[in-house]
Amino acid sequence: MRQFYTFLYWLVLPFILGRLIWRAFKQPDYLKRIHERFGSYPIKLKESIWVHAVSVGESIAAIPLVEALLISYPHIPILMTTTTPTGAARINAALQNRVTQVYLPYDLPFAMQRLVDAMNPKIGIIMETEWWPNLLYICHKNKLPICLFNARLSEKSARGYQKIASFSHLMLSHMVAITAQSEDDAKRLIMLGADREKITITGNIKFDMTVPINLEQQTKYLRSTLGNRPIWIAASTHEGEEKIVLKAHRIICQSKKDALLILVPRHPDRFHAVRNLCEENFKTISRSQHSDRIPKDVAVYLADTMGEMLLLYSVADITFIGGSLVPIGGHNSIEASILAKPILTGPHLDNFKKVSKLLLEANAQMIIHDELSLANIVLDLMNDQDKRKRMGDNAKEVVEHNRGALQKQLTIIKKILTTA
71, 112, 324, 366: least surrounded by Cβ within 10 Å? Predict the structure, then answer.
């Protein structure tokens, strides 16, 4: 089965490379370090602890773990692999030169073997749901222990993996330890063939995030450039959501003429299109092109940079988190919660059901369905500072009550490294 998969991978590789080149037209970073996609690296490590985070969401989950590993194992280099430039940017912004960051190769046996040979990992940790057959096979062949941490598996994804049940079972069998975010995630993994003895339910490690020491200073500076005005943020938006958000902002500006919207598209290759959309409706300034105090008639601040989400959340009074007004499944709301911000989302929250349930039950999150309900709730919160504070405090309390996954994961790592 794996050999047939590899054969198919070779067949579609030209199309994968074509898509990479196509994406590079909008986001040139996709063509940088392309040799790494085939396992060719300019550096070699005598040993390492390897953490893989495919993109932004997984990188957010990995950062608390890597911060702890840097303290616990200062003598072992930390290798981080990502698949997307946005994931790499998030890692570089948070960890800078304290880790070695490269791209994960394409899932071909020779490329994965090159990665293992060059980096000599003592343990491999995959964040959330990144299962690649040849990656797991090569690690198993080289007796490299692989863990799946912060695992989450939606009902939809589980149904997809069930279609290749025997293959899924084989991949899961190569993992020496799995930490699941919830009981439901664990049950779905077991249904696909994971050994229940290898699974520990730890909760979501994103709750163990910490706020950077310099965030307060950065927030004061950025807020001073934006001006003393009501600010709300629409973060991680997808195609179709920006139109709804901008219609809501039009309604808001009728009552709050100085209101500012910080708009953060999820994918960098859409920055240009979203800017054009904004400029059709409002005077707009992009973050990458402006650092001085912005004029009062600017109504939209387009965040077209990467790795700054915590800072952008921090300067806002109210947060809307995208991927939820369209059927994407929502995005992580824990960052906004840590910063004690009131949270608004759409109804599509399949990817973050448990976190959303906790926040809704704590009266920290509200669900909206269209531009009118979004505008009305944002205006209500802008006019009610006490309500904003209550919702924000409730969100932060949810985070504090759900910390603890990190320590459980560190215990598993220590056990594996000790017995390896």
Answer: 71
Q: Are residues 175 and 227 in the same domain?
A: no
229 and 199 housed in the same domain: no
**193: alpha, beta or left? (left if phi > 0; alpha if psi -120 to 50):** left
Based on the domain organization, do 29 and 91 belong to the same domain?
A: yes
| 258 and 184 fall within a common domain | no
In a domain, 227, yes or no: yes
Instruction: Find all residues with CB under 8 Å of 67, minimum gap 6, and list them.
Output: 95, 210
CA distances from 184 to 4, 153, 190, 261, 353 (A): 32, 8, 10, 37, 11
β-strand partners of 302: 263, 286
Confidence band for 220, pLDDT divided at 50, 70 and 90: very high
Residues 344-360, mean pLDDT to the nearest whole number: 93
**What's the pLDDT band for 108 if we cut at 50, 70, 90?**
very high
CB-based contact 250:283 (threshold 8 Å): no
Nearest to 363 by CA among 379, 387, 386, 330: 387
Answer whether residue 208 is part of any domain. Answer: no
Residue type (1 letter), 46: K
Res 3: pLDDT: 87
Full-model pTM = 0.86
Phi, psi dihedral angles at 43 (to 5 degrees): -125, 160
CATH number of 410's domain: 3.40.50.11720
SS3 300: strand
- Cα separation, 7 vs 93, whole angstroms: 37
| pLDDT for 420 | 65
Lowest mean pLDDT among 82-86, 149-153, 165-169, 205-209: 165-169
Strand order in the sheet with 284-286: 284-286, 300-302, 260-265, 231-237, 318-321, 343-345, 365-367
